[in-house]
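My current task is to audit a protein record that another person submitted. Alongside the sequence sits a line of tokens, each denoting a local backbone shape. Where you disagree with what is written, explain briefly why. This is what I was given:
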Amino acid sequence: MNERSSADRSVGNHGRRRVTILGAAVAFALALATHYEVLTYWFTGPDTLTLIETSRITDSPSAIDTLTKPLMHGTNFVALTGKFYRPIASLSYAVEYWVWGLDPFGYHLTDLLLHAVAAALVVVLLVEQWGRSGASGRPGSATSRAWTVGLLAAALAGGLFATHPLTAEVVPVPARRHDVLATVFVLASLWTLGRGLNESRPGSKLRYLALSLGAYALGLGSKEVAVVLPFLAVTWTALDTYGWSGRVARTVRETVLVGIGYAVVSLGYLGLRVSLLGGIGGYVGPFGGVKDASIQLIVSQYLLSLLYPVDVLGFGEAVTYVPTTIYVVGAVWAGLGLLALVAADGLRPFLRGTIGCLGVFYTAWLLVPLPLIVRVGEYSPWTGYIALVPVAALGALITAAAAGGLYRALTELASDGEDRYRGRTGSIGILRAGLSVGGNLTALALAAALACSLVAGSPLVQPYDGWEHAGNVTEEALVEAEREAQSLPPKALLKVEGLPNVVTLGPPTAEPRVKSLRYFWAHTVRSWLRLRNPDSAVSTFTHGLTVPVGDGSVDVRVRIRPRQNAPTVMRFRYESETASNQNRHTTTLGVNTSISASTAVERPEPTVIADHRACIHPLAP
């Protein structure tokens, strides 16, 4: 046991820590550079203002409510969509409102920093895991060369995570912060667990395990998707322990002990959740009920959003959800697995090697969220944020393994060729080395294609200005609505008409675009009016058809029409700025010309009458 402690305190560890911090800082900075423009956006996402409104802490009762009530308590979301207990996420909005009020800069700054922290933790976690040396010795005793390869792979993974196109669905929207928070705590929990497994002293081991369990509890309080952590924790414990010890009995003992700790936290959280929500919670009602998308469709959407979110190669209609995606990904992954097994000379050496151990772990991580998503019955792109970690890690692992394998194969090929030239038998060695060269070249090409396609379609390179446009439209609409609503009684009931269409894109498009764009809904109007006027108790519901607003700049018009013994109508209308300018010009010339105040409704989408339309919501499975 002292070997683990002495290895951890080796002379080179101080320098390694500094280099690791530098690699994490690079990933952190890259994440900031990718999404810094969100700091100029207005409030984005239809649920953001409602989350702020319902999470405010103004006195002791409201503080207790924020920590004990369901998400967005006090709205019809609880009855019509679902019951979720996320006190950590709610507390983040409460703190921000206390610090920033209704300045969107502060909320976007928090989201940006959280994403950057997640990118840095990807680097730190992968370096920590790579520090184990598999069957060659105790964890933490990796050679300088192996550790350098691990650091480079970790830096590549952090960069891919920071810039992935799917982050454009999450980072710009404060209401989707829950996924980022949960991912941060999952990464922190796994990192502290890894540190604990590398400790020899029982006291240090228990302290790290306690920190890991604490991070897990915070993750559960951020979003339910953190429930995947116990599976990941026991998987890594088993792989790590078996990798360096090679003993099944010890592996089982360590894994069971770690699993008990996570089980205790999980049961405690479940008991608290049931007591506060009156049940296990989840999606309910007409908007939150389980959808009916097929499993094949959900799996295909999930894989495409992670591996090929932008059609940079111009496949067009050849890229379909079902069943092509599943077949292609499955075949490629099976081929890579076979290549790795052959290179390792069997399953046992593969599992005891660092690359094999990490490959199995991150493959399990990629697959484990799927049952939760399938249970909901549909896939929303932002729910794939936590799966960006294994995608980035696997891309880096394949690159490192293929490059190393190619170098060894070329070296062996050159050596066997020289032996053959000197009259020694080298045919089998040459054949094996040749096959290894071909396989590793193929794997390296696939990894390079994945990395290049993700970077080419990333927010670091592409504009992804959909959320900026949505924020501008929402700001103009809500400011105008506030002005028009000043004469309304405090408890007015508003029937909101003319809400913008949602934008949900299908298979990868050649043009990098946000695929889950949302503007504002009726409850957004309600929350804004209540936040701006503390005496307001206005209520809203949606009526009629939603309206496409286009991608260009628009002028928003709001008309309020009071009615006797009936809800007041609030109607939103949208006019492109070009049409608006033409309208003003023809008016000055005295021409009797009218231009429609709303854009053409080519394919209107029916909207359900409800106080809280939120069937598409930043809520995890």
